[in-house]
Amino acid sequence: MTAKRHGADDVVAKDVVSGNVISGNVIGPVVQAHTIHGGVHLHSAEPPVMPVVTPVAAQGSAHADLFVGRAAQVEEVLARLEPDGEGRAVVVSAGMGGVGKTALALRTAALAVRREWFTGAALFVDLRGYDPDGRTVASHDVFAPLLRALDVETQDVPENRAEQAAVYHRTLDRLGREGRRVLLVLDNASSGDQVRDLLPRHAAHRALATTRDRLSLSDGNTLVLEALPAAEARTLLERALRNHLPDDPRVAGSPRIADRLVTMCGALPLAVRIVAAILADEPDLPLTALVDELRMGGRAAARRVVGGRSGRRLMATPTRPRSLGGAARPIMHTEPRPGAGDRGRAGAGRPL
After folding, report:
1. pTM
2. Domain boundaries in the chain?
3. Which strand (E) or helix (H) includes residue 323?
4. Where is this region: Disordered (predicted)?
5. Which tens digit of pLDDT belongs to each residue from 294-333?
6. What's the CATH number of domain 53-224, 3.40.50.150, 3.40.710.10, 3.40.50.300, 3.30.2010.10?
7. Are the C-beta atoms of 92 and 210 separated by less than 8 Å?
8. Strand pairing of 121-126 and 182-187?
């Protein structure tokens, strides 16, 4: 920058160069500024959540032996998935988390694979629609992982999302024409937008979605899933506990107290498994003591599952709670209240 003196009070700068000098290793954004007063806060958008697509095994999940009851619902869903069934999308809907939507989806998908109904592929993806941090999976981010799972070579997967969608549907159409049926399990969808573009267009294929809401899908059938009957909930409590401690006698030895525990769980499968995890981590804890503790201060008891060994295993399963809040609410012996994601409670959907 150059300037000339015009008066006594003028400031002259001649051939003075100003600039910013950065040295050393720089990681992250760099701000170029003149004078800064106060603190500087940089906010950058979080990267999108990249979905993980996994195949559905014929034997189901590692916790398939903990699936209790639901015989009528399993048969209803299977009737929609079978080769001669009608409809392309099945939506399993319920009013709150923890009622067993994912477990039912995995159970029926595993049975369908075992019957060799889907020789093209049977794929599971968690859309994270009710993630407490709001980091949901957008449908356009699922095309590429699905294509790779459908054995499309990496170099044949376009970078453009619109082109990915086109290749995805062409691939499904080709598999349908070849008689290689595909099943998609789209878990935890909070809106129709998350699943609509992923639904196969070829009539040979099927999609099974789970949600807490009623999804707006023109070709969807809704099954409203309720809590377990009390006897089945107690059976689940005993199986879940003996999954960790095979010889544990507490549930079988005190069936009435066990019934009280599952009642405090609202007979929700996930809440029952949380209670079983607490009991597994404390083998000397009587059922009556846990009932009293839950009645007096359920929050403390619910939090203990996070730090326990059995609780950590529970949180690592596909049916884990996104947070303990919704799943622990029944075992705190409080009345469940519908949240923003509970608009599709019982009665919102039509039967299969």
Report:
1. 0.74
2. 53-224, 230-332
3. none
4. 310-352
5. 887 655 555 554 444 544 444 445 544 443 344 445 554 4
6. 3.40.50.300
7. yes
8. parallel
